[in-house]
Every structure is written in structure tokens, then in C-alpha cells.
Amino acid sequence: MDCWVNTNLGAPEGDANYLFPGLAERWARGTTLSQLCDEMDAAGIEKAVLVSGYGTGDTLSWVKDAVNRFPERFAASHIIDPRQGMDAVRLVDSLVRNDGYRLIRMMALMTQKPYDDAIYFPIYSKCAELGVPVSVNVGFPGPRVPSKCQDPFALDEVCHFFPELKIIMAHGGEPWTDLCVKLMLKWPNLFYMTSAFAPKHIPAAIIRYLNTRGADRIMWASDYPVLTFERCMKEIAGLEIRDEETLAKFVAENARKLFFSA
């Protein structure tokens, strides 16, 4: 099976270990590039999206090195802090133009600002100009911080203002998953990624949308090491997905088009 994952490296700020058995040990262990490739091979995973700018250590150099060594296997993404203003805009421009980054991420749990706040708009504008997607966390965050800033309804304004910008809702969207579906029905460049949700816990509204009108809009991600590849593969096999074509889009093809197409 060809699958894509959203891979975080380096222990994060904030504690979500209470949600995922064994996560603290996986963070403490760390992950070498050879370990990551071996675990992907064992699970039948061909490609991964790596994340820099999250947690401790020099994740930026780690991710750049991985992509440079295995460009056919890895794409790069980076978590941007929009509160840094023009420094953040210049960083996005450099990462995309000079280092081939394919995704820019932002997290309201970090900024404590909703996604229609003015601080994000320079980043949205730059990403629209560069033709690179933006991923934002939606729903209650795992770390114990206030949650209302991650209400996906704020993306209604963003999608209207930047119709050409591809936006990916990540990390589940609960308890607003029905709203996530409504927004995707309305805005053609809005997508949903299941990162940090064990496949067996993917909300029913998302599976229904995947099996009907949303086959091109929903993609699986593990948020490794939050979830192990082995667990994800076992649980994906138990999902009620209508046919092999829809399954292929969910685990591979939708991500291929967004992150690995020229």
C-alpha cells in the first residue's frame, strides 16, 4: 500500500501524552532517519510529509537533510508563527523558493488567535502567491490550552478572501466535524487531514463524506510518532470505505496531488 503520513520530529511544546499510550516513550527515544525509513518500509508506506518548526532540537536541518537525501520519499512542511510578521513571511518565501517546501502549517493553539485574525493574512497571501497549501489545526487541541481559537468556522472568511489558496484542516476538528464537512461542501479548495486521529476514531461525519462527495478531499495522516504506522495500517483495514478507488485516494492519491506533484 502506498500511504502518506504527516511526520513530526522532536518533542513538542505542550503535553498531549495523556491521549496516546506510549507517546512519551516515543518522544524520549527520538527517531533517526534510518529508523523512520525502516518503520515506513515495514508498514508499506512509500512517502511522508515531514514537519519542521515543532518541538525541540534543530528540526529544520533534520527535515532539509532528509528531503535532500531522499527527495523521492519525503516532502517538507514547516510550522510558521504568524506573530513574527514580515520575518514569518520572508521565512515562508525562502523555504518554498530555496528549499522546496510543499506545505506551510499554522496552529491557533499556539497563537490563541482564530484563523480569520489579521495576523494570518500575510502568510495566506504569500502561500497563495507561491501556490503552496496551508494546513491549520482545527478542533479541540490535545495540549491543555483554550480551544475556541481552533473553531473551523473562521475558515469561512479565509476561503472567501483567498479562493485560490488550498487549505487543509488538520487534527480532526472535533466537536465541529459536521461544520468541517459543511465548509468543504461550500469551498472547493478546502481539505481535511486525519492527523493525530487513530483511524478507528475518525469521526463518522468524515467517513460519510469520504464515501460520498468527499473522496477527493479527505486524506489520512498519522502525525507520527503520535500514532505508530503499524497501528494506523491495522485500523485503516477495518474502516468501512466504499471501494478500492476511494481507499486509494484516502491513503495516497489526494496527498500525492497536494504535496508531491510538480
TrEMBL record:
Pfam families linked to this entry = Amidohydro_2
Gene Ontology MF terms in the entry = carboxy-lyase activity; hydrolase activity
Query: The organism sits in which domain of life?
Result: Bacteria
Q: Which PANTHER family match?
A: 2-AMINO-3-CARBOXYLMUCONATE-6-SEMIALDEHYDE DECARBOXYLASE, CATALYTIC_ HYDROLASE
Entries under InterPro entries matching the protein: ACMSD, Amidohydro-rel, Metal_Hydrolase
Its keywords, alphabetically, are: Hydrolase, Lyase
Q: What species does this protein belong to? A: Noviherbaspirillum sedimenti
Signal peptide segment = none
What is the protein's name according to its record? Amidohydrolase
The answer to whether UniProt assigns keyword Hydrolase to this entry is yes
Domain spans labelled Amidohydrolase-related: 39-259
